Amino acid sequence: MSISFPLADAYVFDIDGTLLVARDLVHYNAMHQAMLEAYGINTTIDGIPYHGMTDLSILRATLAREGIEDGVFEASLPKALEVVCREVDANRAKIRPQVCPGIPALLDKLSGQGRLMGVASGNLETVGRHKIETAGLRKYFAFGYYSDRCETRSGIFQNAVNHVKGELGASATTCFVGDTPADVRAAREIGAQIVAVASGTFGIEELRACGPDLCLQHCEELLR
User: Fold this and answer.
1) When you count CB atoms within 10 A of the terminal residue's CB, does the N or C end of the chain come out lower?
2) For residue 224, what pLDDT is reported?
3) Which three-class secondary structure state does DSSP give residue 22?
């Protein structure tokens, strides 16, 4: 039986676990350094269920665990984000992304069809851009929305949809591709299509239970 993507005018991809898996500690270490410099807290994101969360919500949850209240968190957040971006930029040569199965061929196919493509990621923009550039995938994407100015995934997804409609017209449709239940929930919240891939942390049954339009082990299934 053949498998195909839901038909859409634009396709928007999550980064971590969907396009690639980062086999390094650059982003992890940058988050640690940000909490140390901006809040004076020597802690890590270990123990936080961060898969599917945005960088802002990961920082908030980690620091709340350490007793940092929202007011204090918000006051020092600009400094924290600055440190994360600074550290990732300084250590970008150490980023080791492993591109997920089937991604290059799928992106080639969609590009050849003239589809508009973008990214919608919980990463900060500097972080996300370095990851996809190092992986050799940046050329495929005409736009990107990140968590710098939006803490919720549904908000990031909505920004992407607004961009697509601005480029292609009010009736243009968007299909998201993600690897977590949070991606599925965010797409459903804004009324968009979603393909879930189990190339990240979550298994295919967990993702299928969330009710995506299509659920795959990985994107290579589309090429068989």
Assistant:
1) N
2) 66
3) strand
Tens digit of each residue's pLDDT (9 = 90 or more) over 168-213 = 999 999 999 999 999 999 999 999 999 999 999 999 999 999 999 9
What residues make up the domain containing 136?
A: 10-23+97-223
| Cα-to-chain-centroid distance, residue 27 | 13
State the Cα–Cα distance between residues 211 and 184, nearest whole angstrom: 8
Identify the bridge partners of residue 144 per DSSP, sorted by sequence position: 119
Q: How many domains does the chain have?
A: 2
Report how far apart, in Å, the C-alpha atoms of 176 and of each of 39, 45, 164, 200 are.
35, 27, 12, 15
First vs last Cα of the chain: how many Å apart? 10
Same domain, 180 and 214: yes
Domain boundary, last residue among 93, 119, 138: 93
Contacts of 47 (CB under 8 A, 6+ apart): 65
Q: Buried b vs exposed e over 3-14: b needs ≥16 C-beta within 10 Å?
A: eebeebbbbbbb
Q: Clarify whether residues 71 and 58 are in a common domain.
A: yes
Last-in-domain residue among 64, 93, 122: 93
Pairing of strands 214-216, 193-197: parallel
**The pLDDT of residue 222:** 78
